[in-house]
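Help! Submission page says 'invalid entity' but I think these are all valid:
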Amino acid sequence: MPRWAQLTVLPALNLLAALLVTGFVTWMIGEDPWECLQLLVSGAFGSGEGIGYTLFYTTGFIFTGLAVATAFHAGLFNIGGEGQAYLAGLGVTLVVLAFDHTLPPIVLVPLCILAAMGFGAAWAFIPGWLQARRGSHIVVTTIMFNFIAYSLMLYLIGHHLIEAGSQNPTTREFGQASWIPAIHQVAAGMGISLPSTPLNLTFVMALLACGLFYLLVWHSRWGFQLRTVGVNESAARYAGINVSKTIILAMCVSGALSGFAAINELLGSTHRMNVSFTNGVGFVGIAVALMGRNHPVGIILSALLFGGLTQGGLELSFEKPVITREMIIFIQGLIILFCGALENLFEPFIAGLFKRKEDK
Amino acid sequence: MTDFAIGLNGICKRFGAVQANRDVSMNIAKGSIHGIIGENGAGKSTLMSILYGYYQADSGSITVDGREVRIRNSQEAIRLGIGMVHQHFMLVDNFTVLENIVLGAEGGLLLKQGLAKAREHLQALNRDYSLEVDPDAIVGELGVGLQQRVEILKALYRGADVLILDEPTAVLTPQEADHLFCILRALREQGKTVILITHKLREVMDITDAVSVMRAGTVVGNVRTADVDKEKLADLMVGRKVTLKVDKAEREPGAAVLDVRQLCLTDARGVKLLDDLNFQVRAGEIVGIAGVSGNGQSELLEVLAGMLEPTSGEIRYQGADLLQEKSSQPRAALYRKKGIAHVPEDRSREGLVKSFPMFENAILGYHDDKSVSKGGLYSRQALLARTRDFIRQFDIRPDNAQLRVGLLSGGNQQKVVLAREIHANPELLLIGQPTRGVDIGAIEFIHKRLVELRDAGKAILLVSVELEEILALSDRILVMAGGQISGEVAARDADTISLGLLMGGHKH
């Protein structure tokens, strides 16, 4: 099968299959699938506000998608993006709570970003080290580290970081010095009026990260070593590449990228940390990377799909009370199932079609 | 008229641009040993894979016992009574012989019943063919020769009447090979048909009744063994008079570049893989290491290339012991920077990354080279320019630097590796199986390059299981057996018989 078909026909078919099943389920609970689809799409892309929210969600997904892809190029399946983003949030929060009344934004925000990267990387370093030096399987350790991160954060927020006198497990609001400007504010500064959404400058960082990712993976010395380790460890050893160092470093970069999802959420939108701020962004990143074939362009597109689905789904559940948030998660799950886990479901069939055409 | 066990008629098979089999026809008489002989890449293995159901022929037909059949997968082949003993054994190392044999044919719901029945059957087979295999031995603990017999038993247990053996002697000592041939003769006496794939003329002459010679995907001769001699077969096989002799002038070697002293390597189970090796390789000489594969040659190469840590000993390179060097980078990288180049035995697993384009493989191992990168980023121009140089100098085909290396033929892949390693202008070249899976044209080319390198005053350590190659290239020959050097011979005094004895572990 030609490469273009592999990159376009297959994902489209997978997406279509997921939508068909969704439509069937929607019909079974007594709703009109076509109308729901229209609501979903217009909710995500039909208005300036919808687009803003969609891109806000997309931002987080791009980062966690890049995170999964980085590890994947080194032959590692990092399931721990969620926990790494979580811990990164802790780093951000600690810095903000300590300095948001003393440091100016120009210093505080970069410091927060460094903290997010550092904490995310550190949380990924441990499974990376265990894999490289002790042979523990990265899938198992990163899954476990998600749970550890969750419990740790629950404890820290509940007992130490909680706002005095509050019943909600959340920190106090961050000082304004830590807020990353929203796109509509930046636009207003340039005299352009955009609807107010949480879409913020982290989105620009996400696009920059995609460019850097491309250079790093396909054009840099380190990327060459990373990919060599990923596809052929024997060849890497032959070439004198330090395999365990490469694995550990790949995990650290992966964790640091996940950390940006926390930046987007905490400094760009909520301006306080609560226990559930990551909200599955790390897990969606796995699907984004799979569907985007670990390439930045693919990752942007699939992150956009999942971002639209999140935003459009929320709109849809406002309009149609029958379609609950769980239903949206169900749809996301189906898409992940068809585009990720069953990625090659239709491949033999399509390959057969192409072969027959070729034979003629 | 003789009964034919297998008939192949006009078999064609194409892989992309490569016509692996072109109009191949042969008849294999029942109860005979039939040799299929040809150079690497002549299409023997493809043909047998078609017969065993791994591939489908593009056209042509197969008959078994005179009936035309379609073999779509190996289960169907087994049902038709065709069994195959692969070059690489398909055994589960930590299972017993018995468990391996019933694997996939357990029979019945409970393993115990199946095993009991299998044991009886197995003992009968053992007796009939004097295989001498203990059903309760753990396969991983058996020697190569015995493991091969387990494979034969496995095929017989599944009711094979036709047994295909793919290069069965590649991993055996001459003595083990003789035992194998006894077994094959016993099989023939019991009416089984044996197809022996090989590229060794001696074996064909020794044991087969008839032989089909293949060259470049076609059958160039179906003859009775009694009617031909070695020379005739060799001519058929190669299609022209080929002397593997390489033009090589006598040359006085210079100072020792590599001086190995008391080198030992013991594995985790305490087995001595390398046992007190002492030898030198001097500038301007090719030292060949002969031996049946699996006698420590691979480990020796890996130790010298820095991929394996020896247990003890010294590796003196240009006067200094490499093992005393302290460095934060992996040894393989350090040694390479010091001028030790390495063409690994297994080029597709180690020497190349098949999914990478040629221009990336051109820097594997030399990826830190400052001349192709700036500030950590590679210059695509520089990479492509270097690769095009390789393509020109080594006549690599197709001449597309962007092509994935996995799509090249074996010979061209090897040229990529060789070009890369020679480009580094090494003082010492370690080279393993330089022409394994390489077509004849490329073999001559590669041999010429190696001699050029030697004439330029470089030291070369050559490991090969092909005696002809060792004899043609080496100035001195060391023979390895059981992790030791069992003898050293000057190339002009060496012949296959004396080397064969040394390979079997007979000390000088």
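Support: the input was valid. A stray whitespace character was the problem, and the output above is from the cleaned input. The CA atoms of residues 409 and 438 of chain B lie 8 Å apart.
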